[in-house]
Design brief:
The longest helix has 30 residues. The protein has a four-stranded antiparallel β-sheet with strand order 5-4-7-6, sandwiched between helices. A three-stranded antiparallel β-sheet has the order 2-1-9. The chain starts with 51 loop residues before the first strand and ends with a strand. Helix 1 packs across helix 2, helix 2 crosses helix 5 and helix 6 crosses helix 10. The protein contains ten helices and nine strands. Among the domains are: 122 residues, Porin chaperone SurA, peptide-binding domain (Triger factor/SurA peptide-binding fold, Orthogonal Bundle), CATH 1.10.4030; 107 residues, Chitinase A, domain 3 (Roll), CATH 3.10.50. It is elongated.
Length: 345
């Protein structure tokens, strides 16, 4: 298990903030007293740490929990001097929904009498301690978060693991998509995978400033002709790309001039005409487009058609699994809320 920011987001398997703060435990029988925020935290707690923001079947969720979840959603808060005000209301609503959902999942795990083995707890505790740079740092965080109580720390870790286990069994395991399912989706939605004629090219362009005088335009022409000679002498993708990085003026020069696969209709007609008469690996003639000049290396021509299933299978299976995961989480949330008593303060 990876110990990250806190329990929250798509994977509720984490136990700590990056500054090694413990997540709160919300079991009705576990209500730690409020603690002071420290400057070592990646985000200061709310003005009154420990103030309740919601109750879930009697379990109190505090502003500390809420701020940690907001930190998980927007981990760059410290860099931006806090959460942007325009984003805060929506982020707060989302964070509140998440910590309520987590508490519902935790309580459901307890209702099912789910357990965590002693060996797994031992490994989780060891992983928790490893992220501290020193024993002093560990003790400081323990004191701030759980008043130095190892037992309370273990309860918090156990809570995290139980949430993770229930979500794995009720969401992640059921969200897996087989190749058969992916192929069925592909066959039913073939139009999504149709594409027009495309060309995979690298370009080198000489772009004189707008409204250039004749002298500047002549210099651009000379530069383009010299670039063309060098481009024609290249023998590979890498050689052409390195030349593009060195002399090209277009935006793709930082990527070896590689524009990847571009739809024919998005390319200038002279480029399309030239590409249709070339073989992969060839470099075009020098093409003038207004006051600009370009040349390109054809890497591949892709005829209009449908992308084969094997080429989209991996991404399609991931996308369908994510979609299924979100649906299952939403259904689980709806089911758990149906019989729960939730009070938002």
């Amino acid at each position: 298990m990876k110990y990250q920011l806190m329990i929250g987001g798509a994977v509720l398997a984490s136990v700590l903030t990056s500054a090694a703060q413990l997540v709160s435990s919300h079991a009705p029988t576990l209500t730690p007293a409020p603690v002071k925020a420290t400057t070592s935290a990646p985000m200061q707690a709310a003005p009154s740490p420990g103030n309740p923001v919601a109750k879930v079947n009697g379990a109190v969720l505090t502003d500390r929990d809420l701020m940690r979840e907001m930190q998980a959603i927007f981990p760059y808060a410290q860099m931006h001097n806090g959460i942007p005000k325009s984003m805060e209301p929506e982020m707060r609503r989302g964070a509140l929904e998440m910590i309520i959902f987590e508490e519902l999942v935790y309580q459901e795990a307890l209702r099912r009498k789910m357990t965590v083995s002693p060996l797994r707890m031992k490994r989780a505790e060891a992983g928790f301690r490893k992220q501290f740079s020193s024993e002093e740092e560990f003790k400081q965080v323990m004191q701030v978060e759980v008043h130095g109580s190892r037992q309370l720390m273990l309860e918090k870790i156990r809570r995290s693991l139980l949430i993770d286990d229930l979500l794995k069994s009720d969401v992640a395991a059921k969200a897996k998509v087989s190749e058969i399912e992916a192929r069925a989706y592909y066959n039913q939605n073939r139009k999504k995978y149709q594409h027009p004629e495309m060309f995979s090219i690298q370009t080198i362009s000489i772009l004189p400033p707008a409204d250039s005088n004749p002298e500047v335009l002549n210099e651009a022409r000379r530069k383009a002709e010299e670039a063309f000679k060098q481009a024609k002498a290249t023998k590979s993708y890498q050689e052409f790309g390195l030349l593009a990085e060195k002399i090209s003026d277009d935006d793709w020069h930082v990527k070896l001039g590689d524009r990847k696969a571009v739809e024919a209709e998005k390319l200038p007609p002279p480029v399309v005409t030239a590409a249709r008469g070339m073989k992969p690996g060839q470099v075009s003639d020098l093409i003038q487009l207004g006051t600009a000049y370009t040349m390109f290396r054809l890497n591949a021509r892709i005829a209009a058609g449908t992308t084969p299933f094997p080429e989209v299978k991996a991404k399609l299976m991931v996308d369908l699994s994510k979609e299924k995961n979100e649906h299952l989480r939403a259904e689980l949330n709806k089911k758990l809320r149906k019989t729960a008593k939730i009070e938002v303060m």
